[in-house]
Structure formats: C-alpha cells, structure tokens
Write a structure and sequence with these properties.
Number of strands: 17
Strand content: 15-25%
Shape: globular
Strand order of the largest sheet: 4-10-9-8-7-5-6
Radius of gyration: 22 Å
CATH class of the largest domain: Alpha Beta
CATH superfamily of the largest domain: Type I PLP-dependent aspartate aminotransferase-like (Major domain)
Number of domains: 2
Number of helices: 14
Structural class: alpha/beta
Helix content: 25-40%
Largest sheet: 7 strands, mixed
Length: 423
Amino acid sequence: MSEPSISTGKVKQKSYRPFDLEKIRDDFPILKREVNGKPLVYFDNAATTQKPIQVINTISNYYLNENANVHRGLHFLSEMATDDYENARLKVKEFLNALSTSEIVFTRGTTESINLLVSAYARKNYFKEGDEVIISHMEHHSNIVPWQLLRDERNIKIRVIPITDKGEIIFEEFEKMINEKTKFVSIVHVSNTLGTINPIKKIVDKAHNFNIPVLIDGAQATAHQKIDVQDLGCDFYAFSGHKTFGPTGIGVLYGKAGLLDKLPPYQGGGEMIRDVTFEKTTYNDIPHKFEAGTPNIVGAIGLGAAIDYIRSFNINDIANHELELLKYGTEKLSEIPGLRIIGNAGNKSAVISFVIDGIHPYDIGTIIDTYGVAIRTGHHCTQPLIERYGLTATARASFALYNSLEEIDILTESLNKTINMFH
C-alpha cells in the first residue's frame, strides 16, 4: 500500500502566543462550570487533562464535514480524512522530534503502547527463560502488569530499581542490576504519584552501554515539558492523548525505525497487510504494520490539534508556570497541621500527593468536592509504590497550564475546613 499523501508537506511552527492565564482559561469551556454551587477547581490533571475549545472544535468539524474512513477510499472525503489523519502523525513526529513519521504508531494510549511492545517482543522470541527486565518502584500498573504477563509466559525475571524516601530512584542500584541477562529497561519519565522526574538520559546511556533497549512511559511528561526523543536517546517512548489536552482513546508509541521494522505485528486485520492469500500474508510497512483495522481517526486528528495548542506556547513558559504552582502549592499545603507530602524529589513535576493524620484520603476527596475542588484519591494505579510508603492511599493534586495560585488557596481552605470537621 502506498504512503498516504500529506497535503501540508511539513508542520509550520507559528510564533508563540503570550502566556496569559486568563485567556488560556477562556480556551477551556469546562472551567467555567460550577460544581456543588462552587466554581470548579480542577486538580486531577494527572488522571486526564481538560480540552481546549480548539480541540473540541476540531473533533466536531471532523464529524460535521469530513467523516470517512482513511487509506482505503479515492473519494474526496476519504482523501481529506486521510490527509488530516497522517498530518496528525506528522505533528506528533515534530512534537517528539522523531526522525520520521514511520516511527510514530497510533495506539489507544500509553497502556496499549506498552502492551503492543511487550507482545511484539514476545512474539519475536526475544526473551527466554532466565532473562531479566528492569523497571522501577514508581511504575504505573501499565508498566508492571504487561511484564508480569510476559514473566508468567516465558519465566523471565523482573528486577525493580528501589527508590529513596524522597521518591528518587537509587541509580547506583540500577547500575548493579545490569548484567548479561538484562534484556530490557522500561521506566517512567515522570511519576504520576510522586511527580518525580527521572534522569532519563542517564538511564538510557547506562543501558545502551550494554546494548539494552529502553522504553519510556511518558504519559505524565508530554503536556508539561519539551520531549526530544533523539536527545533522550530512548528506543521507545509512549504517551496518551487525553493527558496532553487531547481526546481519550488515542495514544502514541514512538520507536526507532530499525527496531520497529524488525518486530512482528501486534494484531491482524485490515490496513496492517500488503497482500493476503489463504496460504500467506505479507505485512505493510511501519507504522501501518501495527495499526490493524479502522483507527481512531478523529482521536488522532484531535491529538494533532492538542499538539498545535501546546506548541502555540513556549514550552518553557508552561514549565515555569507549573513550577510556580508546585512551589506555591507545596508551601501552602506544608503549613496545614497534620498534612504530610509524599514525594519530595529534587527534580519534580507539578504533582503533590499527601496524607492528613486521622483522615482517610477518600474522605478528603469527598469532602473537598463539596467545595468544587476535584482531586484524585487512591493508589493512583501505583499500588506497590504506595505500599512502599506504608500507605493504602493518598490524596493527589496535579496541576496544568490553566491552573492558578488562587485555586491553590481554595484547595488549602477546603482542606482546613475538612480538618476542622474531623477535629
């Protein structure tokens, strides 16, 4: 199958817009609504980000004006949809600074990206009994369970990099783990629970000294900092659209072309084939080899619009704003009697997990919701990490570019009122 044309030729970077918080908040319609009679304060961005009107309008426009299947039709709508779908792939390529669009595979999200990779490597018989995979103690379940499934199937060993009480990986322990049995390293870029930003380049360099491939779970990184996969040196990078101001049900697996090309398909069906007979099937080129069936067309196009939105700003302005939120939030919450912050890494993203003496995190989340404040409570799909701190759950406030210092004041006030109710 021939490569679909991309009408724009290349992604043009517009000049950056000023970081005007009031105007940014106007871009997100949901922030204008009330919850329980109070203005919504949305601090659950690590779970999913809200969507700007630019993304919402792009999704509506697709269904209103160009809905058609991609890659298979010669009619006007199909060609338009195909151009927009593949142009979204090009935007992702530029966003990650990948070498080629062939290195960008669309998936349902970070979870499927990791499962795709584990499954493809397993089918290649890359792992044999006794081989080892290294992950860290702060991994999301989606970067633990797929490796456990592989462990149970191939009798491999999973080794876990320990972390300090501050929430930083112990790099010296990682160095000790690497040996001739190590076949893969899979690690989170930014912890969704602790906010820790891991030293990815340092980890990749160490692994590559032993010719070990590295996968990075970037779900919590792409909306908050510049991602350059060539600079990081990683072999694979995964992220989700819905945590990057885009729609749900769409994600990306970046992989170096030479590695993706050697891997077998993840699923079988339409689009991932070149020729099919009852005796034999030959597969399509990457990335289409990994995209069986009708894809999430509007999801990809919506993700492209979300990337356009992020790239309309200087990413350093976003990072600096969120750092200010993190510092202010840490100071304000640290003043609350009985509140303890879990995770105090020196290099940290805008996530604050905490517990309050004598109050279950679920009660915290339920009560402050009555004040219009949305946070996350639970183990955050990092149950081994939470248990490492001797806990069953935490409350978590996670910030994004549209959040304000005034909203942190509301969070602080609602937490103080919660404490007063219990004491």
